[in-house]
Structure formats: structure tokens, C-alpha cells
Specification:
The chain is mainly beta and 146 residues long. It has one domain: Elongation Factor Tu (Ef-tu), domain 3 (Beta Barrel). The protein is 3% helix and 38% strand. The protein contains one helix and ten strands. A six-stranded antiparallel beta barrel has the order 3-4-9-8-5-10. Strands 1-2 form a two-stranded antiparallel sheet. The longest helix is centred in the middle third of the chain and has 4 residues. The radius of gyration is 19 Å and the shape is globular. Bound molecules: S-adenosylmethionine. S-adenosylmethionine binds next to β8.
Length: 146
Amino acid sequence: MTLLMREGKFVVRADKQGGLPNGQTRPQRIGVRPIGLVVSREGSQHQEIKIASEFVSGLDGVESHDHLWVLFWMHQLTEDDRAILQVHPRGDTTQPKAGVFALHSPCRPNPIGMTRVRLLGWEGSKLVVEGLDAFDGSPVLDIKSG
Ligand SMILES: C[S@@+](CC[C@H](N)C(=O)[O-])C[C@H]1O[C@@H](n2cnc3c(N)ncnc32)[C@H](O)[C@@H]1O
């Protein structure tokens, strides 16, 4: 990215190699470990989150919350989907395109979904929730009180 002065205003120009203003650097990759998986059966109103055994103690106290935030990886998106930076809101082509960072579109460089769900139950390594719009098999990255 390069910061340029144009007609008295600063504008940001994307460099071919990417990068940040003032030569700042960013890590090219960071690591995340999925903590579990979404189980979503067709036709069911509820979804399950299966937590891997090594993370189960992180659920202690979860029952005191009605709602949780679930962060998941939209694993079925392709590299092409991840290169899309502008889309029509909700796929409505009568609306002008907007940037994906201004929307909840699944297309984005890091396909992280973030959904507030209702907690219906907790049994060992399994959470039962309502309202999780993640495909079956989506890796779960994190859960936070909501
Ligand atoms: C609009 S996104 C929003 C997700 C979340 N509520 C958010 O705001 O980040 C929800 C859509 O993402 C898509 N999706 C969900 N799980 C996915 C997955 N594992 N791979 C690809 N697409 C997925 C489905 O089309 C779903 O309807």
C-alpha cells in the first residue's frame, strides 16, 4: 500500500506486492487451530458443535449464557471466492457492489464466519445451539460469551 497526496488529500494505493504504509510489515500467515466442528443436519432446527477433547475444559461456565458467539471457518469457499473484495449486498444485483469488509458476505480473504447463536444445551464435548448458519463440517475457531 502506498499513501499518496492527491488534490490536497491523502489516498491509499494498493501496491502490486501488497504491504503497508511506511514500509511496515505484517506476517504473511498466522496459525489457527480449530477447536471443534459444526454438525448441521438437513431439516433440523438445531445445530451441534463438537469440541475436541483438549479444549473441553474451556467450556466451563458456558451454561450461564443464553447466547454465544461462534467463529467458524467457511471451508467450502475456493481461492477464487477468497479473492473477491466487492459483491452486491445479499446477491441483489439491483444494489451497487460494496466492499466485503462493509458486509457479511461469505466471500472474503479470510473466510471467517461469526454468528450469535442461542445455547440450547451442553453435554460434555457437545453444545446444542440454534441459529448457526454454518455448513455441516465447518471448523469452529472460537466461541465467546454473547
Ligand atoms: C452470509 S454468511 C454469514 C455468516 C455469519 N453469520 C457472519 O456474519 O459472518 C452465511 C453463509 O455462509 C455460507 N457458509 C456457511 N458455512 C460455510 C462453509 N463452511 N463454507 C462455505 N460457505 C459457508 C452459507 O451460504 C451461509 O448461508
